[in-house]
Amino acid sequence: MAEQIRNNNLLKGIATILKELREAKSLSQEEVYNDTNIHVGRIETAKANSTVSTVAALCKYFDITLSDFYKRVEEL
To answer: What CATH number does the domain containing 34 carry?
Structure first.
């Protein structure tokens, strides 16, 4: 299997925006996990190299489009 590509700046941007979205709804990482079955804590610390599908599921959960989410990431 080929080595996975890892862009630490992008992962940190995704982590920052996800944390902002979660905190804006006053949700704990545990609450997000219970609702989505996604370990958002590993994503928020930029330890996990999330799949597009995982990010899309979290965007749906936080009611933000993928394009708006990635625009916010790019603006960091």
So the answer is: 1.10.260.40
What does the pLDDT look like over 33-69, one tens digit per residue?
Answer: 999 999 999 999 999 899 999 999 999 999 999 999 9
How many domains is the chain built from? 1
Assess contact for 54 and 38: CB atoms under 8 A.
yes
As a whole number, mean pLDDT of residues 13-40 equals 97
Residue 1 lies in a domain: no
Tell me, yes or no, whether 24 lies in a domain: yes
Q: Measured between alpha carbons, how far is 20 from 15 in angstroms, rounded to an integer?
A: 9
This prediction's pTM: 0.90
Q: Which two tokens stand for residue 41?
A: 């804590």
CA distance 32 to 60: 12
